């Protein structure tokens, strides 16, 4: 039999896990909104997300209450997801979107700058190759 204290701790862990799963799902939603993930990858990521979510839930249950699945486990998960969605989701999505847009802009600027910096080197190497190809070596 699991003590009441252990059940309360497990319930709190499940609420926190619900928050974490909802946060990870929001991150995934933001990534998908940028259009970089196709339908095949979406199906694979959905499967991986469900598999990892179930695995983490089972791991926490094993460590907190010997893997016993009770009704309050599901209530805790759902409550965690609902509370996160109602209180934090909109703000977190905006912050993630702004952050990812800034990261994408930075990466784009770095790529453009490196392209501009290495273009003269590339042109010089092409001229050097053409110059070398112009020489005829006889053996």
Fold topology:
Blueprint lengths: L3 H30 L5 H27 L5 H17 L1 H46 L5
Pfam family, one: Spore_YabQ
Protein name: Spore cortex biosynthesis protein, YabQ
InterPro entries: YabQ
Biggest pleated sheet: none
Please report the total strand number as a whole number.
0
User: Strand content of the residues, in percent?
Assistant: under 5%
Compute the number of helices.
4
Alpha-carbon distance between the two ends: 91 Å
Mean pLDDT: 90
Shape: elongated
Reading the helices and strands in chain order gives HHHH
> Segments where pLDDT lies below 50 for 5+ residues?
none
What integer value in Å does the Rg equal? 26 Å
Structural class: mainly alpha
* Helix content class: over 70%
InterPro entries: YabQ (IPR019074)
Transmembrane segments: 12-31, 43-63, 69-93
Pfam families: Spore_YabQ
Protein name: Spore cortex biosynthesis protein, YabQ
Features of the shown structure:
mainly alpha, 86% helix, single chain, 139 residues, 4 helices
Tell me about this structure:
This protein is mainly α and 139 residues long. It has four helices and no strands. Helix 1 (4-33) packs across helix 4. The longest helix is centred in the C-terminal third of the chain and has 46 residues, at 89-134. The chain is elongated, with a radius of gyration of 26 Å. The model has no long low-confidence stretch (mean pLDDT 90).
